Amino acid sequence: MSEPSTNKPKLVGKIILLAGNGDRLADVIHRFIASMEAPGSSKKMIATQEEMVEAKVPIPYRDQCAHLLIPLNKCRQSEFYLPWKCESERHTYEKCEYELVMERMLQMQKIREREAQLKAQSPQSIPLIPKTANA
């Protein structure tokens, strides 16, 4: 016998589905991506999923700097991709991307430091290949 449908959220993978309300999977995924924030990131998503789809932003570029990429791409198209045009837009976008990379590097450095501390605190493991007495 099936349980009565409720609007209680269920966690399936990393996508939160609302059971029983007849949402299309594509709508649920779009809501999930739109609400997605990078864990531990200081930057928030400004551009919505709909804005990024409308501006045809490629999926790998839909990060916390996408709100700067949309006007940059519009400027590039209107200026026929001339490299000396849209410099201020390109600079702000590249600076945003640089800050995201530096933030991720700092997070990874902190993770490595924590792992090194845990490894130093844990007792030494037994070697798989024993050393012989004459070595």
UniProtKB/TrEMBL annotation:
It is found in: Mitochondrion inner membrane; Mitochondrion intermembrane space. It is a peripheral membrane protein. InterPro entries: NDUB7. It comes from the Eukaryota. Keywords: Disulfide bond, Electron transport, Membrane, Mitochondrion, Mitochondrion inner membrane, Respiratory chain, Transport. It holds the Pfam family NDUF_B7. Accessory subunit of the mitochondrial membrane respiratory chain NADH dehydrogenase (Complex I), that is believed not to be involved in catalysis. Complex I functions in the transfer of electrons from NADH to the respiratory chain. The immediate electron acceptor for the enzyme is believed to be ubiquinone. Belongs to the complex I NDUFB7 subunit family. This is NADH dehydrogenase [ubiquinone] 1 beta subcomplex subunit 7. It comes from Rehmannia glutinosa.
